[in-house]
Amino acid sequence: MKEKFKAHLDEMFSSYEGLRTVDELKEELLKDLEERMDDLTKQGHNEQTAFTITLDSIGDIEETIKDVAAQSRAMQRMVLTNFSATSLPDSDFKGVTVHDGKFESSILKGSDFSHSDLTGSSFKSSDLRNVRFDGSNLKGAKLSMAALGDASFIDCNLKEADLNCSDLRGAKFSCANLTKTIISKADLKSTVFESCVFESTDFHCSDLRGVCFDGQRLSGVRLDMAGLEGASFKNAVLQGVSFRHVAKKCLRKSCFDGASMDKLTYAVLKANGADLSKVAVK
What's the helix, strand, coil split of the chain in %, to 5? Predict the structure, then answer.
């Protein structure tokens, strides 16, 4: 009868082969069936009757199997390996879950981390050129001193992430959450920012020449000592933005047309020679 039970379970679990936790459930269920069958035969039931009653006792466990399979697949997607100092260009990491992972000093250019959970992971000093982080969670991630030229951060959560001293030339931030993100001392020439959340974002000492912030809201953003020559803030909303020690010649060549700002931000920019003739003070 053991073989009959096994054949029955093999059919029930055929769509979920190779999933560790599902295989464990199958083994446990087989053991339970055998024990149940033994109990029934000891109670005086003939073998066939005991077999039928035992199978009926399983009931409908299809939903349970599906739930266990889903959990097993999620576990398989989790990456718990230290990838520091490795060469893995053009790798497919789509959809992985790596909390506090280590990818430091690695070559990962051209790799795809889209729709991954990389919370707290470290990519310090790594080659991340042309890497895709679209739709990923990089909250608290460490990307300092990294080569991030032409990297893509579309719809990416970078809250409290550290991109200090990184090369971000040509990188694209679209609908990215940059709340309390550190992007200081970074090269941001030709970097694209579209519909981002700028809350207490730190750009101090970064090269933002020619960067466009048109139509976006900047709240509590730090731009101290940043290179802003040719930067554009057309129709932007500036609240509590700090421009300390920014060169006057840079501010004079930046565009604030159509922007609205608080009185303190306005006063600092005005004192440093910025053209605020088309600015609204609120």
Answer: 25, 15, 55
Is 183 in contact with 163 (CB distance < 8 Å)?
yes
- Distance separating alpha carbons of residues 1 and 15, to the nearest angstrom: 23
Specify the 3-state DSSP secondary structure of 35. Answer: helix
Residues of the chain below pLDDT 50: 75-80
Phi, psi of 181 (to 5 degrees): -80, 135
Return the closest-CA partner of residue 201 out of 188, 217, 224, 218: 218
- What's the DSSP call for residue 121? -
At residue 78, the pLDDT reads 43
Alpha carbons 49 and 41: distance in angstroms, whole number: 9
CA distances from 69 to 20, 31, 63, 243 (A): 9, 20, 10, 54
Residue 141 identity (one-letter amino acid): A
Coil, strand or helix at 127 = strand
- Which tens digit of pLDDT belongs to each residue from 156-214? 999 999 999 999 999 999 999 999 999 999 999 999 999 999 999 999 999 999 999 99
Domains in the chain: boundaries: 2-76
109/87 Cα distance (integer angstroms) = 9
| Angle, CA 100 vertex, CA 95 and CA 105 arms, to 5° | 90
Burial status of residue 47 (CB atoms within 10 A of its CB: 0-12, 13-18, 19 or more):
exposed
DSSP 16: G
Question: Do the Cβ atoms of 257 and 234 come closer than 8 Å?
Answer: yes
Q: What secondary structure letter does DSSP report for 15?
A: G
